[in-house]
Design a protein that fits this description.
Layout (H helix, E strand, L loop, with lengths): L15 E3 L2 E3 L6 E3 L27 E3 L3 E2 L6 E2 L4 E2 L3 E2 L6 E5 L3 E5 L4 E3 L1
Antiparallel strand pairs: 1-2, 2-3, 4-7, 4-11, 5-6, 8-9, 9-10
Length: 113
C-alpha cells in the first residue's frame, strides 16, 4: 500500500515519486513532494480596494468613474452592482450593470457594500 498522497488534479491513487516531484500517471500532473500540503490550496483570494474579501453574489460600489472601452458610456462613481461573479484574469469581477449591460471590472476599482 502506498503512503503517497493522491493526485490533487484528478484524485488518482496511483502517484509515484520522480526525484523530488510526485507524478500522476493518469493525468500527467506533477507537483513538489515538499509542497504536498499546499497542493490542494489553489483558491485565489480576491479583495476590493480597501482589503475586504469578495465572494460570488456580493454587492459592490464603483469608487472611480470608469470609461467603457469602445463606447462613449461611463460607469459613474457610486454605481451599485449586485450579484457579482468572480473569475480568473486581469478583470476578475464579472457583472451586469443597469443601463450598460454585462462587463468585467477590476477589483481595485470597487468597494464591498
Amino acid at each position: 500500500m502506498s503512503t503517497l498522497p493522491p493526485c490533487p488534479a484528478c484524485n488518482s491513487e496511483y502517484t509515484y515519486e520522480d526525484g523530488t516531484n510526485l507524478v500522476c500517471p493518469e493525468c500527467a500532473h506533477e507537483w513538489s513532494a515538499t509542497d504536498n500540503e499546499a497542493a490542494g490550496d489553489d483558491t485565489k483570494v480576491i479583495k476590493d480596494s480597501v482589503g475586504n474579501v469578495l465572494q460570488d453574489g456580493d454587492t459592490i460600489t464603483v469608487i472611480k468613474d470608469l470609461k467603457v472601452k469602445g463606447s462613449s458610456l461611463v460607469v459613474k462613481v457610486g454605481t451599485k452592482v449586485k450579484g457579482i461573479r468572480l473569475v480568473d484574469g486581469d478583470h476578475d469581477i464579472d457583472c451586469k450593470i443597469d443601463g450598460i449591460g454585462a462587463m468585467k471590472l477590476k477589483s481595485e476599482f470597487v468597494r464591498k457594500v
